[in-house]
Every structure is written in structure tokens, then in C-alpha cells.
Amino acid sequence: MTAAPELATPTLASPDLLRSVFRRHAAGVAVITARGPEGPVGFTATSLTSVSAEPPMLSFGIGLGASAWPAIARADHVGVHILGEHQQELAALFARSGADRFGAPTVWHDGPEGMPVLDGVQAWLVARVVTRVPAGDHRIVLAEVLLGDASGPGRPLLYHQGRFTALRD
């Protein structure tokens, strides 16, 4: 059996290999928020996954070194926001280390369960954290959806090849 030319030079598993492969995987962009002891926290996530319909559950990953991790580690609830293609700057802001994510120009309000809810998103959910599963240098957070709104405007924002982008027709 001969390998296809493009598969002829496999690389041993490494963080760089994983990053290179997943740069080729287009992912939807979400912002996860929570209420911390110092106020609201949030981060941009491309690891959001629907887990179960009955009961409605989702998951996302967060790095142990993320500034939002201490609050997420103790949070009973999280806010989940699906960003639209018009929100590239918001996605970049919540991905930037040390940024004032909830200052101007971010528009948000206190939502159900005290969760920070971002305005103008395609959809948002509030979910109750069920568990946090160790996964290397990350934790996978499983949460049960309590309520939300899927009536926001626009088309989804995507992350591909290391940048935010939009769907093409």
C-alpha cells in the first residue's frame, strides 16, 4: 500500500502539529461569560459543542492559564454567546490578554442568573455548570442549558487559518 503524496510525511504528535491541523478546521466563534468575584469575566472560544438534546447540554474548553479560568472554575452558571460576522472586533477583544473586555465599546447587561449577556449577538444561552473535566492543560466544562434567545441578526462568525472570517456563498 502506498501513501498519497500529501500524506507521505507524517509528523509526530506535538502542540505545533495540533495547532497546524486545527487552523485548517473552520470553527464557529463564541464568547463565554461568567460572574467572578471582581466582576464579569469572558473569553473567546472556538471549542463550543452541543452535547445533548435531552437534557440540553453543551461543552467548551478553557485553558488553565486563561484569565477567566479562576472565575469559570467556581462559577455555577455561564453565559454562551454565538457571534455574528459583524462582531470580529468583539471576538478579538475577548481573545486579547489583559483587555478590558466589558468596558466601552462592549455593550452588555446583567442577564438571568446574574450572567453578563452581550448585546447584538446572533444567539445567547445561560447554562448551569454540571462538571469540569480535566483535559491536559485545559478543562472541558459541561453545562446544562437553562434558557436563551436565538433571534439575533446576521450570519455566523468563523475562525479559520488563524483569523476571524465569514461564510462565503
Automatic annotation (TrEMBL):
Gene3D superfamilies for the chain: Electron Transport, Fmn-binding Protein, Chain A (2.30.110.10)
Molecular function GO terms recorded: oxidoreductase activity
Domain Flavin reductase like: 22-166
UniProt key word Oxidoreductase: yes
EC number(s) given by UniProt: 1.-.-.-
Key words, A-Z: Oxidoreductase
UniProt entry tagged with the keyword Transport: no
Top-tier EC class: oxidoreductase
One of the Pfam families matching this protein, by short name: Flavin_Reduct
Protein's name in the database: Flavin reductase family protein
Organism: Streptomyces thermocoprophilus
